[in-house]
Amino acid sequence: MRHGETEWSRSGQHTGRTDLPLTARGEQLGAQAGELLKGRVFSLVLVSPLQRARRTAELAGLVDAVVDDNLMEWDYGGYEGLTTQEIRERVGYPWTVFQDDVIPGATPGESIEEVAARCRKVIDRAMPFLATGDVALVGHGHCLRILASVFLRQQLRFGSQILLDAGSVSVLSWEREMHVISSWNRTLQ
Description:
globular, 6 helices, Rossmann fold
C-alpha cells in the first residue's frame, strides 16, 4: 500500500526523507484503502518509519505494523523537494529518477541499485511469513515500484512503467512458481 496524499505528493515534489503529514484527502485515502483490505488477515505488517506511511497504516486498520527502515522512500539527495520539471531545468535534459542519478544534498542520495537492495531485504524478511498468511507493506511510491520490480524479477527500471497512486493497494503473488501482479494501483476513487 502506498501512503495517502501529502502536500508534496499532490504538487509532484520528490518527497524522500522529508517527513510530511497526510493532507485531509490523504487521511481519506488511507481509510478507503482499509476498505479494500477488509476481511484480510496478515501474518506480518511492515511500515516505513515516516509519518505519512505510519498514519496510512493506522487509518487502514493495520494496527500491528512493525517499522522497517528498508521501506523508506528513495533518498533523493539534492533533488529532495523539487519537481521533475525543476530538476530538468537545472540539469538541462529530460531527467527521470528511474533513468538518471540523484545528486548529494542535505542527504547523500541513493542509486536505484541501493533502493533495490533495501527492497530485497524487505522481501527476504516477509517471505517466511507468507507460509502462514499474507504480508502487508505500507510505504512510498518509488520504493514500492522498485520493490515490485525486484519481486517480479524484472529490470529495476521496470518500476517506471507501473503507476502507483497515493493511497492505492496492490497485490503481488504467485501463479505456480511465477511471481505475478494480482492487482495493481487499486483505490475506491
